[in-house]
Each structure stands twice: as C-alpha cells, then as structure tokens.
Structure of Peptidase S74 domain-containing protein:
Amino acid sequence: MKNFVFVIVMVLTVSLNAQTNVFPATGNVGIGTTNPIRELHIQKSSGTIYELLQTGPNFLGIGVNSAMQFGPALVFNENSQLRIGKGSGISATGATNFRELFRIDNAGNMSLATGKIGIGTSSPIRALHIKKSTGTIYELLQTGPNFLGIGVNSAMQYGPALVFNENSQLRIGKASGISTTGATNFREFLRVDKTGNIGIGTSTPSKLLDVYGDAKMGKLNARHYMKISSKEWPELRFETPLSNENIRLGVAHENHAGYGVSEGDFYVFSGTSSSMPLAVNKTGNISLVNKKGAVGVGTNTPSKLLDVYGDAKMGKLNARHYMKISSKEWPELRFETPSGDENIRLGVAHANNTSYNVSEGDFYVFTRTTNTMPLVVNKNGNVSMVNKTGNVGIGTTKPDAKLTVKGNIHAEEVKIDLSVPAPDYVFKKDYDLLTIEEVQQHIIEKGHLPNIPSASVLEADGVELGMMNMKLLEKIEELTLYTIAQEKKHQEQKEVNLKLEAKNWELETRLTKLEALLLKK
C-alpha cells in the first residue's frame, strides 16, 4: 500500500512539473500491466490483487480490487466526504458493494460506522481496545444503548473503571470487566450525579461534595495529618505523633454528654486533657467548658482564663470610631471617635498618670476634649471631680452647675458648705431688728417676708439651698428675738397682774369687813 501511495505522489508530481509533456485526452494508463482497465491501473507482479484508481463526474476512488475478497478502499465524493471502507471494486459511480468503516464529512466530523479499533492489538474485542505490551491487562471502552464504560479488565484482579450511564451519572470504581450492560462486579468509590453533586462513600450525594466516611489530608509522618471524620464522630481532627496532643473540632451529639456540652453545640476538643475547653452552643453563646484551661491572646503563658497582652479593638463605624482595650503603655478602655479630641478613656492610674492630679492605683475617666481626668475613684473608694471646670448632670445633658439634677434626690443627709456668713449677726446688739409693725407693713406692701425672695423670683431663679437656709435661719433667729421680747413683756405683764390681783384681794377683804359692820348696826 505504501508503494502504491508513493507511485501516485510521483505521478502527480511529474504531471505538475513536466509542463512540456502531452497526454492523450482519453485512454487508460497501466503500471505493471499493458492492458489497463482503469484510468490508472497498477498491478503487482504476483497474485490477482489489483490496486485501482477510478474517477467519475463527482467521484474519486482509490482501492484494491480482488476476486477473492472485499478490498480496502478510499473514496472522495461530491459531498466533500472522505470515506474509508471495503469494496469488491471501484466503478465510475463509486465503490462496488462498499462497506463503510470510517467517514470524515464536509464539516470535519469523524465517525466510525462499525467494527472495533485496536491499539497495541490486531484483534480488538471492544469498540476501543488498548492492549499493553506485557501481561494480560486490557484497557477497554465499551458502549451500550445508554452506557459508556472505560476501565481495565484483568483475569487476575478487579481493575479501575470509569462508567457513564443513562442517568447522566459518572461513577468511578473497580470492576472485573466492562460489558454492554455496564461494569461487571462494579465496586463504586465516587459518583457525580446529574445535578453535579459528588458522592464519596455514598451513591446518593445530597450536596456538591458528600463524603460518607473519613477524609485524610497531609502526612508529615505516620500520625501527623488532618482528618475529616463523618461517621462515629463528625468532626475535623488535627492528628499529631502523640495522640494526647490531638485537636478536634466538631458538633456535639448524644455521645458527648459527658464532656460538658449539649447535642448540637460546636466544640474544640483537646486530646491533652480529654475535655472540650471551648464550646459554642446553639444560641451562639461561647464558653470555656474546661475551667482549668486559660486563653491567651498575645501571650502563650496566660495566667487567667482570658489573658490579653496587647490592644483589643471592637466595632468600626469608620476609620476611628471604635472601642479599644489597651493593655501595654496605658492599661485602659478607650472609646475612639472620628475626632481624636472627643475620645473617652477609662483606666487605672500608674506612675505616668500623676501629672493628671491622680495617684497610682486610682480609677479615672479621661477626656481628650480638656486633656484632663474629670472623674476619679481613688483606692479608698472616694469619688471626686478632678476637672474643676466640668459639670455633672443627672437627668439632664445640659448641667449649669457642678451638679445639676433634674428630678428627685433621696438622701439621708446633705452637707452644704456655706458661701454666705451664718446669721449669728442677728443676736448682736447693733443688729437693726425690724419691729413687728414694720414686718407687718412689709408683708402688706411686698407680699413676702423681708430679705426673702418673692415667689416669682424663686420660680425663675430656683432656690439656692445654702443661701436660703441662712435666710430662713435669719428669720428663725429674728423670730427668737421677737419671742424673747414678747416673753419679757409677758413676764412684766404677769408681775403687774399679780400685784393687781393682790391689791384686788385686799380691797375685797376690806369690803367684806365693812359690809359685816354695817349689818350689825
């Protein structure tokens, strides 16, 4: 066949280059024969096999004609098709009794009509049969009505197999053979169903990846790897050479009841202590189940259940609107705002804070607005306002005094430092005490006591307790003087009355005696 192709190429080459050659318009050409029966008739020196080339109006055929059997043929037709097959001859209309085996159509599509393809074997037993050079292993591809299987067939063992079936499923496993109905004795390892879900260890995957069994990743040594367990303990495990150093993460079920967690809780299991030091329950609460365990952030030697060495930041409305827990330079809680001058800081004073009028160990509230600490609780529990320009409001956001309370105050005792002198001056001899008549006249004219604000003034300006108490005390002391004076007059009047009563008794006695004498006469 190779010689035939070579001759054809040579003839075509000569025809194209030998521009001076002239051939007759009709007739046949014979090579190896003086009686050509085709336009080009090439006959071997022995046998009855004829290699032929025949052309028609829209047809070119190259093939082998034999009286004994169907010969191979290569056909080009008017439909721009290339067909390879067998025929009993090549005629002007095409190949005689042509049995097509392979076709390339005008779109470039290739198809195999019948038969089998063998690679590494001249006797294929499947549609595609690939045979290795050694052993009895056969790599096969077999198709059925709704089935495609690719696998390794072995008389000695189960071979790997890849199966596509009518349910749009891809199945990977092992089989002892591939037949037209499916894989023989198929042991499935992995399945991709028609929805795209992948199942490992299960034939009915419900998720994109559904693994029924354990998954193992990484292997530094025999026991240093990560493992995803899904059967007995559905959890993620980080195994180490020492089993007591394992770390396991999972969701608790009824078998975990003895570990201090409830079914459905997320946990972190430490193989060192055989306990679950960290748990997140179904409501979202986070707890340290193992009370002996401590959590360190920024330190690997935590001394408390939670030990943070460094700053902690929470919340972020924008670049500078958040809460910060600082623990190094200034151990304090900070509330940062977009303007640094509006920050609020709470902490315990240390040696570096003494310039802010606080002592080491005092609790303070620091405001960047005034760069001072307006509120301090010292080690004895006393609360003080260090910033003398600051006001405190209770029930109001606009205090107009050091302490402004909008509402009631309930206290056992209130102590007020005097800003005005105590009214003991009332008892001095030079005090100008108004007479009762003068007081009465003032009340008639003004409607209130002398030196006491009127009701309208009190309603407008409020009551200053210190000053008002002193004014009330002044009135009490004045009333005391009035009472003393009245008592003095009362005593004087009493003495006069006693004298009058004695004189009256004396007169009544004398009158009685006089009346008695008159009656005797």
Observations:
- Residues 1-19 have pLDDT under 50 and may be disordered.
